[in-house]
UniProtKB/TrEMBL annotation:
It comes from the Eukaryota. This is N-acetyltransferase domain-containing protein. The lineage of its organism: Eukaryota, Metazoa, Spiralia, Lophotrochozoa, Platyhelminthes. It comes from Schistosoma mansoni.
Length: 205
């Protein structure tokens, strides 16, 4: 996503670089001021109050997600000074379409070679056109990739050669057009599993 600075189209430096499951990450370079205070990120909501996130310097990489998934939304980023009477020293305008999120991932390890994954997915207008990508494997092996329909919310994984004590790794994210949601990632040790079922849950809110 490219943003336009109001007075100079050649210095686009504030841009979305990735998403997180519940946050949007931004790259912020030239939005500087000797008395820099904070940035307001605002989503324009017609006929209603704009959604707003206030971002301080240390928080620039992790912002609350605003705007509905797969809906093109207009935003602006306003930089303010830390003076007693804060003033707006720079503004960017942007248009952005957010990728649906994945959360509440659960892994059921039924044997050392077989596991079952399930998750929840944010409903959106682009469900029929995107996919979910899974990378899964173990710490000492190359990860394998699986691409499935976004309509699926569970997946059976088997035929992995693993030994007790190895660490299982999984990466799960959505893709829509040329955009990705930031991966949900986790790892857990491979233990000896008998008849009892082992369940691991990863929450992303």
């Amino acid at each position: 996503m490219h943003l336009l600075r109001e007075d100079d189209e050649d210095t686009n430096t504030f841009r979305v670089i990735q998403e997180q499951t519940t946050a949007m990450a931004f790259e912020w370079r030239r939005l500087t001021h000797k008395n820099f205070g904070y940035v307001y990120l605002l989503q324009n909501v017609p006929m209603w109050i704009d959604e707003t996130v206030k971002v301080y310097k240390g928080d620039i990489g992790l912002l609350k997600a605003i705007g509905q998934a797969c809906v093109v939304s207009n935003y602006r980023a306003e930089g303010y000074t830390n003076d007693f009477l804060a003033s707006n020293f720079m503004t960017y305008h942007m248009t952005y379409k957010r990728v649906p999120r994945i959360n509440n991932v659960q892994i059921e390890l039924k044997s050392i070679l077989y596991s079952h994954m399930r998750w929840e997915r944010e409903r959106s207008a682009c469900e029929s056109t995107d996919s979910t990508i899974i990378f899964r494997g173990y710490s000492t092996q190359q990860l394998q990739m699986f691409i499935i329909s976004s309509s699926q919310v569970e997946y059976h994984v088997n035929n992995f050669k693993a030994e007790e004590g190895m660490e299982e790794v999984f990466i799960l994210f959505n893709i829509h057009e040329n955009r990705f949601s930031l991966p949900t990632m986790d790892n857990k040790p491979v233990l000896k599993v008998n008849k009892e079922q082992s369940t691991n849950q990863t929450n992303r809110e």
